[in-house]
């Protein structure tokens, strides 16, 4: 159904370049990996937009790591495991909580300016965290500050070459190893890159859904490429919906950070009533999946398209200082969060699943690594703990670069070609196709799911599969093919998992079934769907 390659090609006729390390993506995972890898080898970093454009840039809340004497890695690990609803890999979580603090110090050394109070790192608390351990920068612009600091380091590094506005189409493999990638240049010409190691840092696939906090670029490219190449992807059914995205006419689904609730904001329905105590004893600080479902239930019960987030009881100056970006953005749409309630609704936010890796970022394909949201390290389980994503990226980027020196050099390989007799692209426009896919996913594979809806989604998605047999040329067409690949993986996994766990909620199977389903769902292009037990310790 899904072909090995998206386009026909013959590398003998393409411009060929070589790199020690090829990194695809320029979020925190790609930038940090590039800096660490370039300490002793030449790095080529490719990004499909500018160096500064990534999901990381829009991360508001912060980065979770133990830096206070009142906290401990054991507490951080316990919180992560609880949020992950029984599906975390304990060894991966242990690596995160013990190595994260050193990663913070490295980010500071590389120029990241985290907020401080009295000379000490300022810490906040977010949902499902037992302690204040969230570092932030410029109040609510943590991601932007991290990307600013790291991108400056990358741009100035003599060992890192950066290609912007370039679209990686597919990974090239031979004898079970990744030997490089096929790249479309800004002018439409294609190049063939060979690399000793290829590292996917290309983010998630938030654009599967019409309502998302993710930027336009989040189209699941790395996951789809790895799947086509034969890599195992895992836990694709687990999509985290952020409970609080701005829901206002004329405004995008702008993320209202969980830290706003961490600093005391409460949720109210359209009648002004607080409601979270009806759903969970932790109220507004319950895990994201619980809060998102509670909001959806209240919206349906009150026949509204939104609920309210209320922080008007906090001093206005404190709110403006702590959340300057959120305050100014809402103000630009005529909403003053210090005097009025913000209309919010859930929106797609983060993928817990992705390319399956081991504790050193290695995929099931030799020489192919994955880091950040595009990977499935086992840290997040069925529901990511808030602000663990940035710390996961730096911890596993560091672990990947530790392994690179042991890789033997890439030796001679054959010149690959591929032809699939593709037809001209003649159906509806790619914009229409993308919109239809997003509507399908919102309706049938969103916050709540049911077998009937998932089957309907699968039928609609299969109706778009013929696109794989057409000539795909533009970046938008490549992105749509990647989104369709990821959508099929998400729906297949959601259909198979007949239980509710974390971010995956089945109305027809509302209970968690540890006896049958406390395991991962794996998908591989040639082998189909399989299952894998949790590696308990």
Automatic annotation (TrEMBL):
Name this polypeptide is given: L-aspartate oxidase
Record has Oxidoreductase as a keyword: yes
Family matches, as InterPro entries: FAD-dep_OxRdtase_2_FAD-bd (IPR003953), FAD/NAD-bd_sf (IPR036188), Fum_R/Succ_DH_flav-like_C_sf (IPR037099), Fum_Rdtase/Succ_DH_flav-like_C (IPR015939), NadB (IPR005288), Succ_DH/fumarate_Rdtase_cat_sf (IPR027477)
Pfam families: FAD_binding_2, Succ_DH_flav_C
Keyword terms: FAD, Flavoprotein, Oxidoreductase, Pyridine nucleotide biosynthesis
E.C. designation(s): 1.4.3.16
Free-text function comment from the UniProt entry: Catalyzes the oxidation of L-aspartate to iminoaspartate.
UniProt domain Fumarate reductase/succinate dehydrogenase flavoprotein-like C-terminal: residue ranges: 434-523
Involved pathway(s): Cofactor biosynthesis; NAD(+) biosynthesis; iminoaspartate from L-aspartate (oxidase route): step 1/1
Molecular function, one GO term: L-aspartate oxidase activity
Stated family: Belongs to the FAD-dependent oxidoreductase 2 family. NadB subfamily.
């Amino acid at each position: 159904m899904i072909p090995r390659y998206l386009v026909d090609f013959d590398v003998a006729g393409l411009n060929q370049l070589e790199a020690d390390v090829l990194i695809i993506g320029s979020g925190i995972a790609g930038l940090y990996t590039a800096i660490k890898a370039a300490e002793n080898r030449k790095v080529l970093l490719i990004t499909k937009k500018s160096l500064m454009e990534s999901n990381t840039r829009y991360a508001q809340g912060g980065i979770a790591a133990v830096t206070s004497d009142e906290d401990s890695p054991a507490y951080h690990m316990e919180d992560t495991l609880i949020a992950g609803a029984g599906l975390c890999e304990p060894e991966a979580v242990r690596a995160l909580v013990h190595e994260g603090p050193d990663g913070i110090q490295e980010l500071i050394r590389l120029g990241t300016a985290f907020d401080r109070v009295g000379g000490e790192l300022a810490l906040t608390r977010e949902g499902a965290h037992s302690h204040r351990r969230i570092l932030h920068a410029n109040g609510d612009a943590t991601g932007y500050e991290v990307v600013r600091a790291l991108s400056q380091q990358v741009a100035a590094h003599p060992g890192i070459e950066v290609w912007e506005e370039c679209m990686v189409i597919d990974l090239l493999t031979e004898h079970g190893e990744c030997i490089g990638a096929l790249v479309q240049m800004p002018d439409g010409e294609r190049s063939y890159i060979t690399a000793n190691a290829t590292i996917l840092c290309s983010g998630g696939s938030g654009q599967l859904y019409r309502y998302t906090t993710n930027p336009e670029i989040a189209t699941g490219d790395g996951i789809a490429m790895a799947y086509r190449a034969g890599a195992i992807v895992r836990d694709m059914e687990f999509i985290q919906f952020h409970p609080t995205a701005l829901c206002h006419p004329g405004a995008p689904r702008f993320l209202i950070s969980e830290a706003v609730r961490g600093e005391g904001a409460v949720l109210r329905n359209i009648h002004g009533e607080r409601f979270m105590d009806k759903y969970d004893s932790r109220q507004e600080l319950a895990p994201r999946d619980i809060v998102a479902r509670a909001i959806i239930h209240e919206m349906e019960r009150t026949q509204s398209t939104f609920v309210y987030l209320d922080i008007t009881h906090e001093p206005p100056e404190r709110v403006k200082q702590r959340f300057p970006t959120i305050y100014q953005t809402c103000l630009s749409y005529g909403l003053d969060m210090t005097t009025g309630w913000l209309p919010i609704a859930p929106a797609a936010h983060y993928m817990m699943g992705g390319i399956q890796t081991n504790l050193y970022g290695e995929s099931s394909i030799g020489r192919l690594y994955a880091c950040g949201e595009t990977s499935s390290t086992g840290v997040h389980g069925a529901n990511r703990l808030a602000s663990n994503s940035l710390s996961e990226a730096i911890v596993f980027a560091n672990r990947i670069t530790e392994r690179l020196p042991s890789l033997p050099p890439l030796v001679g390989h054959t010149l690959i070609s591929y032809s699939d007799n593709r037809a001209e692209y003649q159906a509806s426009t790619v914009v229409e196709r993308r919109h239809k896919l997003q509507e399908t996913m919102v309706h049938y594979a969103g916050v709540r799911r049911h077998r009937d809806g998932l089957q309907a989604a699968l039928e609609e998605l299969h109706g778009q599969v013929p696109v794989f047999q057409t000539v795909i040329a533009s970046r938008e067409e490549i992105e749509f093919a990647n989104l369709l690949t990821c959508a099929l993986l998400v729906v297949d996994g959601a259909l198979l998992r007949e239980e509710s766990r974390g971010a995956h909620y089945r109305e027809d199977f509302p209970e968690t079934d540890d006896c049958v389903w406390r395991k991962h769902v794996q998908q591989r292009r040639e082998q189909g769907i399989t299952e894998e037990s949790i590696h308990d310790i």
